[in-house]
Design brief:
By secondary structure, the chain is α+β, with helices and mostly antiparallel strands. The protein is about 30% helix and about 30% strand. The radius of gyration is 15 Å and the shape is globular.
Length: about 170
Amino acid sequence: MRIREATPDDARAIAEVHVASWRWAYRGLIPDDFLANLSVQEREARWREGLSDAGRGCFVAEDATGGIVGFASYGPPEDEGAPEEAGEVYAIYLDEGTAGTGVGRELFAQAAGGLRDLGFDRAFLWVLAANGRARRFYEKAGWAPDGAEAAHRFDCANEPLVRYTTDLRV
């Protein structure tokens, strides 16, 4: 497995992983019709734009054949109520067969390092409140809920979210 910085040329492969991972990871957490209507083409356009933004970063994990099997993206906070001096991990997703192999831990660590490199002292992310697997993953990495809750993300079908934070200076 190799981890590297993503480029705009990776937009299609990242979009494919993004859609496929939502469909397996959020089954039973987000309405089935919402998941069925996810569009690789729409996600590809968003990724192509996002990967061209110099203020944001994204790492991808490649398998032995060079195929992208996971990604983690990060950058300045997208929320007005973000914790002070905190950057945001926007997303971390893996192919279903890659989950549980340690690749996610490495991608997550790279994203945290990327936020440090951007000058952030703290980091946060939003996670579906009902997503126990992801919440355990973040907690094992030393992140903790800070008490903030929301349902503000249309891209999460407006399901309840909780915010996790960590100190990047540690």
